[in-house]
Amino acid sequence: MIQEQSLVSNGRGGRRKPEGSDGWRDVDLGVFAEIIALRGTEATTSAVTRATQLWRVTIRVRPGINTGMRLVWTDAVLGEVIGNIRAAALNDTRDGVVMTVESEARPA
């Protein structure tokens, strides 16, 4: 699933999540993709450990993909994965979009 931020004006020149929403709206459901785990990292800052996973995700060409979007998919081992798109570019044959996606590990 591809999602984009869905923010509304806060009346003071800023933007906020709509009431009763997580701030994201579905753009495209049921997108077929090749998803490959690249590497995981872990860092401790101010006594808080944060683990992240980088993925390479390839989908068919779709206009409008940008780094303000995120992907949501279900992994057989990890369950639901929510990953922020960090980079997106056309592949060599220009028939697909290759993205670098970063997800944060959630505590069990």
Describe the structure.
The radius of gyration is 16 Å and the shape is globular. It has a seven-stranded antiparallel sheet with strand order 4-1-7-8-9-6-5, with no helix packed on it. It has 108 residues and is mainly β. A hairpin with a 2-residue loop joins strand 5 (34-45) and strand 6. It has no helices and nine strands. 0% of the residues lie in helices and 61% in strands. The protein has strands at 2-5, 8-9, 15-16, 24-28, 34-45, 48-60, 69-75, 79-90, 96-104.
Set out the fold topology.
Blueprint: E1 2-5, E2 8-9, E3 15-16, E4 24-28, E5 34-45, E6 48-60, E7 69-75, E8 79-90, E9 96-104
Antiparallel strand pairs: 1-4, 1-7, 2-3, 5-6, 6-9, 7-8, 8-9
Entry summary:
The chain has 108 residues and is mainly β.
Task: Please supply descriptive tags for the structure shown above.
two-stranded antiparallel sheet, 9 strands, 108 residues, seven-stranded antiparallel sheet
- Which oligomeric state applies? single chain
The count of β-strands is 9
Structural class: mainly beta
* Global Rg: 16 Å
Biggest β-sheet description? 7 strands, antiparallel
| Number of helical segments with 4 or more residues | 0
Give start-end ranges of low-pLDDT stretches: none
What percent of the residues sit in helical stretches (DSSP H or I)? under 10%
Helices and strands, in order, run as EEEEEEEEE
Name the beta content range. Answer: over 45%
Shape: globular
* Span of the ends, CA to CA: 23 Å
Overall mean pLDDT stands at 87
